[in-house]
Amino acid sequence: MSDIKKVLVAEDSSVIINLTRNVLMFENFHITSVKNGKQVLAKLEKEDFDLILMDINMPQMDGIECTKAIRALPDKSKANVPIVAITGNYKNYTLDDFKQAGLNDYVQKPLDYDHLLATVKKHISK
């Protein structure tokens, strides 16, 4: 049996969720999507994921705040899940800003789906 990797997509744009889902499902990733950081934390309580794609600007709890909450979880396997930021505001942040928040990497909006897929594979295949 193949080991299907699970990706949690945290994004408030349905268009980006659907496009990301289509790209990653074509590569046999199992995709779960949520619309904000609070939903990410609720999903993580119930399930394990191999990677999280985290929009930075979301309602209720943004991606930076959510990432910090994940990194503080007592369950180390959940706390150490790779998290890749998805952001249209990359000019407002440096890679160091993302790393200090606990993010492993980032991809810019508008999304380049080849780059997105390569970034996901880079962090999942470790």
UniProtKB/TrEMBL annotation:
Residues 6-124 form the Response regulatory domain. Signal peptide: none annotated. Pfam families: Response_reg. Keywords: Phosphoprotein, Two-component regulatory system. The modification 4-aspartylphosphate is found at D55. CDD domains: REC_hyHK_CKI1_RcsC-like (cd17546). One of its GO terms (biological process) is phosphorelay signal transduction system. This is Response regulator. It comes from Litoribacter ruber.
